[in-house]
Hints:
Blueprint lengths: L17 H9 L3 E7 L2 E6 L4 H10 L7 E9 L7 E9 L4 E9 L5 E2 L8 H12 L3 E2 L28 E6 L4 E6 L70 H12 L4 H8 L12
Parallel strand pairs: 2-5, 6-7
Antiparallel strand pairs: 1-2, 3-4, 4-5, 8-9
Amino acid sequence: xxxxxxxxxxxxxxxxxxxxxxxxxxxxxxxxxxxxxxxxxxxxxxxxxxxxxxxxxxxxxxxxxxxxxxxxxxxxxxxxxxxxxxxxxxxxxxxxxxxxxxxxxxxxxxxxxxxxxxxxxxxxxxxxxxxxxxxxxxxxxxxxxxxxxxxxxxxxxxxxxxxxxxxxxxxxxxxxxxxxxxxxxxxxxxxxxxxxxxxxxxxxxxxxxxxxxxxxxxxxxxxxxxxxxxxxxxxxxxxxxxxxxxxxxxxxxxxxxxxxxxxxxxxxxxxxxxxxxxxxxxxxx
Length: 285
């Protein structure tokens, strides 16, 4: 059963024929074209990315006029570990396409700022996060991290604490950089179940490490000698097999009821009468 879209949802034309048109327009610059989950991805040669993007923008039938986003991807196990991904949008046909190129730490990717000036900011972000260079970018600087930051965050190859920290110095009236100094080491977590107990010694437990089982407790701080406990001669523990052995049962219940129903004595009544009564005079009802 076909899904009915709401009237305000713009219609999207089918991507049928897009891959064939891209193969014809890009020629040898195209390495691979795939259509997965309704999204077309074109893998192209790194040195031809500018010509590829121009062809996708200007070729009739394709017309992907706008660069919406650029992103970096890191595959450390690959010889060319980085991918640069371009997301293009066709305003006239309301559909998208993805273009990817691969590179390594040393080889830059040609800049597409000549086609879309907004790519200057997007390329700076990929450079800042992954360290991918872009030849032809007129202002390739860091854009998210600090100017003195060492390393590239998305490579995940730098210390978790960083290398330097910055603060405002009242003495120098400026921001200063200093080596990172941790006030405490990173805490380690054993991730044990609460009922299993910790494998480390809690503060105070070290006092009981050298005590044998059943050994007497140490003397108190005052120096007083503890009173020895008298030993019993019973060989078997005393047990109760019926309620009468514990003092409970019907006789005890009857006696408790009688005590509760006894009238109060004169002494108890006088003590109750001596209790001060609260004074409510002067208060509004």
